Here is the input.
Amino acid sequence: MTIYVGNLSFQATEDDLREVFAEYGEVSRISLPTDRETGRKRGFAFVEMKDESKEDLAISELDGAEWLGRELKVNKAKPREDSRGSGGGKSLSNSPY
DNA sequence: CCTGAGCGG
Here is the structure.
């Protein structure tokens, strides 16, 4: 599960995000995308944890909270794409439906 | 990189 973190301060870094999310669980992965042309931070990030239950807790607690002067917008991120592409199909993951 | 859109490779 990946967490989408929006409305971030441009001064925020991956390490800062890791510390903040580490309060709710061990951070497995951090992603801080930037614009491919200028390299400027777009003000959002992606955080992944080892325990999904901790992610849900972090989302509910950090969403709407103020951080570095900006109100955090935390939500579950869209899955970028399945890593499989060869002949394959969609993942057999259990859908929410 | 000096910026404000919310979803990346």
Observations:
- The helical segments of chain A are 14-21, 52-62.
- The CA atoms of residues 30 and 42 of chain A lie 15 Å apart.
- The mean pLDDT of chain A is 87.
- Residues 2, 4-8, 10, 31-35, 38-46, 70, 73, 75, 77-78, 80-81 of chain A lie near DNA strand B (CB under 10 Å from a C1').
